[in-house]
Design goal:
- The complex is a heterotrimer of chains A (about 325), B (about 500) and C (about 300).
- In chain A, about 70% of the residues lie in helices and about 0% in strands.
- Chain A has 17 helices and no strands.
- Chain A is flat.
- Chain B is an alpha+beta fold and about 500 residues long.
- Chain B has helices at about 1-15, 45-55, 70-80, 90-100, 115-120, 125-130, 155-160, 170-180, 195-205, 235-245, 260-270, 280-285, 290-295, 305-310, 345-350, 350-360, 365-370, 400-410, 455-475, 480-495, 495-510, and strands at about 25-30, 55-60, 85, 130, 135, 140, 150-155, 185-190, 215-220, 225-230, 270-280, 340, 380-385, 390, 430-435.
- In chain B, the strands form five sheets. Chain B has a five-stranded mixed sheet, sandwiched between helices. Chain B has a four-stranded mixed sheet with strand order 8-11-7-15.
- In chain B, a hairpin with a 4-residue loop joins β9 and β10.
- In chain C, α4 (about 80-105) crosses α13 (about 230-245) and α9 (about 175-180) runs antiparallel to α10 (about 185-195).
- The chains are: A mainly alpha (about 325), B alpha+beta (about 500), C mainly alpha (about 300).
- Chains in contact: A-B, A-C, B-C.
- Chains A and C meet through α2, α5, α6, α7 and α8 of A and α1, α4, α5, α6 and α8 of C.
Chain lengths: ~325, ~500, ~300
Amino acid sequence: MKKLPGLWYDPKHKGFWRGLSFELSHNRVLYLMVLPAVLLTLVYRYLPMLFVVISFQDYSFAHGLGIMGIINSPFVGFKHFAELFTIPDFGLKFTNTLVIGLGKQIINFSGGLMLALLLYEMSNRFLRNAVRVVTLFPYMISWAVAGAIFSGMMQSNGLFNAVIARLAPGASAVGFLIDPRYFKPIIILTEGWKYMGLMGALFYASLLGIDITLYEFSSVDGASRWDQFLHITLPSIRTTMIVVALLNLQYIVNVGPDQVLMFLNPNVYSTGDIIPTYVYRQAIFFGNYSWATAVGLSQSVLAFIMVIFANSLARKFDENRTGLW
Amino acid sequence: MKFARIILLVAALVICLVPISQAAKSIEFSRVFPVSSGYFPQEVTPVDQMVENKFGLTLKKLTVPATDTTKLQAMIASGDVPDIMLIGELNQAIKLLSDKVIGDLTPLITKDKYPLLYARVTNKDYRPFIAYGGKLFSIPNPNFYTQFPHVPIYRKDIADDIALKLPTNLAEFSSWLAAIKKSGVKYPLTCCNGFNYGNLRMVFNAFGVAIDTNGLWHWNDAKKTAYCDDMTENMRKALAYLRQLKADGLLDADWSTQNEEVMFNKFVSGQAAFMQSWSVAWWRKEGNIEQYQREQAGEDVSKFDPDAWNRRPVPSHVDIFPRLKEIKAYQGWAPVWDRFVFSTKCVADKAKMAKILELAEWSLTKEGYIAVGIGQEGVDFKFNEKGYLTWLPGVTSDTRARKGFANLYYFGSPGDDQLEPPGDLDKPFDMKIRRYSHEQPLFFDINSYLVSKTWAEKAAQFAEKRDGIFYGIINGMRPVSDFDAWLKDAKALGYDACVKEFTAAYKAANKK
Amino acid sequence: MKLFGKRKTVGEFYFFILNTVILSIIGLAMILPFTHVLAISLANQVQLAHSQLILFPNPLHLNFKVYAFIFSRGETFLRPFYNTVFVTVVGTFLDLVLVLITAYPLSKSKLKYARPLLLFMFLPMLFNPGIIPRYLVVRSTGLMDSLWALIVPSLAGAYGILLAVNFFRSLPPEIEESAMMDGAGYLTVITRIVLPLSKPIMATLAILMSVSYWNILFDAVLFVSSQSRWTLQLMLYQLVAQFATPAAIINANSIGSMPAPEQIRMTAVIVTTLPILVLYAFCQKYLVRGITVAAVKG
């Protein structure tokens, strides 16, 4: 190890700045590699985040445009956050958001996991590759198109009702899109359709990293396929499972409005209207940016708390101390 | 590259300061339109060339390829306010005015300099849509009323099959629908989610039941108060009626979730016999109030009288379009649909504004009107003896350019390729359009030109509550008695305050 | 991947059958909507008006008019296509490089600030401040109206970095350590040892990134103005929007010569997704080869 001259040589000296410069110079290559991404993140992700300050202001174009508008708008503290709770049926919308978010993540995660495992255990190469390729197709189209396709299929004279008519002649057509009871399952399942392949690909990639010799040795020792599955396959991808779960945790709260908007209509507001779609409608109508930003910020803070908490739990209970960071 | 652009911009500005001579000078101004106007951008169209030659104006296009105005909002927020914007929503325009994003045009448009324009913007019926608080903040889109009215349209062939004559009242209409259903058509009446149940109201208006809905505010002259027709007993009856229709299978089960294309497909393929939609062709001939008013008043635009539109007799249209016979149309459109607003910077720039206003003034002359009237029947197209659209030699033969320039001024224009008769459909069908009259005393709804603070804040919430309940009632998911729940919710949201505010605003606006 | 020999027990055989059935159902469910889209884009307009309920294109009555209609706008098609390809290729390449060189150091636990830095990268994922601040930032960094505005702000996203970090952590450290003992610098370690082993994560990331760059629409709406920089998605979105105006709908249905907006939309979907699908299917072969080789070697 090269001895570095100067006061900042000995890391045992207390002092944050000395420790910092030691660390940076000792591993300078590694930190340099990280630098471009850090700069990009700072500029394109942290700088825009400063904009959330308008949620504490009464921001409007009247106070000026560009950065001056932000600087000159008056501060109002938590006024807009309080308005969050005055949203009509706030409790209902909030529960809808959480239920839909949770349902989506469960389906995506378990569906993807199941898909990856099934693919891994499929010995027929053609089927395996074909299904792998095909399950990624839905990920590649946007919700605008997928929404149109599915709503088309769910109309009273659409595919699903045609099948129902065939199987149960005489039954009246099911109004999938207008009945509030079907809304959440539709949203959750169509999300699964779209993202299961992607989740599956993520898990499958890590499955591929498992050392095959482990299986060979264990079968020599007399392990059955099921034993191998339980004791080799699953534990090997445990870290990936944890990381993916943590990464997607925020989407339980940060449900995006795009998909829901495709299927939302006034018939199903009671079960389908979630906070982001409500905010979207209000913002489009009125351009009340301060309020919309306040809602977004609250969602993000909630997601943040969840992830921090979950991450520390994961690190505590996992033997490798796996976590996102 | 960026540096060079700055130099060019500075040069352009310098040139603008020099007094304008005969040679074509280039004044750049950027204009922004949300692209729902179907504008397919081209860098320079022949019409732009014509404008440049005549006025020395370079129209630098900056289209916003989005059907919503998020990009425009972002541009304004960052300070890149375009010189000219086309804004549809009055409330949005007023907000821009109060935020000082757009400028006041009052001092610029004077009677001696721009007589035609002056007459237009001081006309008392257009004024509420283009001015606010004493400030004139916009120029109306000169081709308003080339919008498309909503009309009920029925399939004549299917109607002929059941050999019933055209219904003239609600009872006859109901039995008519039932007879169509009996003849095997799956949904006698179809509609689409684009205009929700409000579309259905026009069906009933066609047969003498005045149910104005969709949150329109009106003036009750007897009681001297404003009111919202969503709260009336008439509305309850209408909902109950629609609910019954749906339960009897006479209303398309997917009316609340399908879009216009699906609705059209059903109608065109004979799955539905009656639909609520736009009548483009008729409107082009008869619905163009500008043309109508010109015919009535001649070239003196100050003599324009919108009420004449209401009072005129129902013409017969056999000669226009052979496929259209009796036509009735809903007339509840605001006179000013889109309006041109100008950024404060642009308004302050005397030279630019002089050019723009010159262009606007020219568009009101006969020559300019024809150029701007691209896309109107009689101007650049007509219907031939078979009833199909044929192009007339217009300002330019480049149809796309036509669309481009036309969309400088108005929304909507004919498609490019309407030259062949339909050959793909199994059998050409006759589209009949039935017109009905609007029974309310007001020509247009109040809230398109009067402002109530509570309503401005809460309209979206009203709409949501209302739609949830109304849709549920019609679709059978809720009982009709839920209408009372709606009345309660509306009161809780602030209906009474809105009534007070609209009443006061109406009285103030109609003092003279 | 055949793990070992033939299926030895009855249980395994039943499992195989079950597996095949489930995977086939999943596969069909995933692909049927696509064949539906393809079918509509190739359908005869009369057929379409009668019923939208077609799952497969009818090989006897293929109608290429809609494709001809879209491609006939020749001058406005090639340029956007090129722009989208540019954004995708350059974006994926840069993004992949950035993610890998960022994730590698951050996966090293000996790095004192690795954890805080990861948190630093991850945090913005949770906060979405909206379009106005993004517009402001892109504008002030001078990327306005440039294809780079579609590439640069999306580079080095936290999702990819965290996945890559997780992958690197799973690699056995002994290989690198022994190499470094022998005097190899980081550059050698990365290029000779880590990268060849990273094929699975590179493949996954490449898919994620290329699809995401290819499908960019909203950012293009915001940041791109001049027509020469329009992307494929933007151009086709515009086309669909243009033909979905009331006039267009009525004309399409009553006169019948112009394609219905529905058809145009579906054809636009095929035109925009087919290239990326083909690319993906094509690269599959190489990725699979790389993965299995790496796995065997490892």
